[in-house]
Write a structure and sequence with these properties.
Blueprint (H helix, E strand, L loop, with lengths): L6 E4 L29 E3 L4 E11 L6 E3 L3 H7 L1 E3 L4 E3 L6 E8 L5 E3 L5
Antiparallel strand pairs: 1-3, 2-8, 3-7, 4-6, 5-7
Length: 114
């Protein structure tokens, strides 16, 4: 069995945010954090791009995926427009999360929210 190495780099403006990590032993995915300078309101029906503050170096032949958080979907109607979002192995830019508010109320995103 060969070892697969995924390199995670933080952008300069995200050094205060945690790196992605598994929150429980049984978690299938790592959490990302909102790299925004101040709170952002996602209005009902609105789409906004939220930066994550990280860039990945994914080995050739692999991909990463961005998926919505089930708790945010169930409680507030928050989803991702292109779910799952695919990050190709040759992409080296900052990971951006394309969020949508399917809910009935405005949703506030704060710096560091998962």
């Amino acid at each position: 069995m060969s070892e697969i190495i995924l390199k995670i780099m933080q952008t300069d403006d995200a050094k205060d945010l945690p790196l992605p990590r598994y929150m429980t032993l049984g978690a299938a995915g790592m959490d990302l954090y909102a790299n925004i300078p101040h709170e952002v309101t996602l209005h009902k029906g609105e789409i906004k791009v939220v930066p994550s503050g990280i860039c990945l170096s994914i080995p050739e032949g692999y991909e990463a995926q961005i998926r919505p958080r089930s708790g945010l979907a169930a409680k507030y109607g928050i989803g991702l427009v292109n779910s799952p979002g695919t990050i190709d192995s040759d992409y080296r830019g900052e990971i951006l999360i394309i969020m949508i508010n399917y809910g009935e109320k405005d949703f506030i995103i704060n710096r560091g929210d998962r």
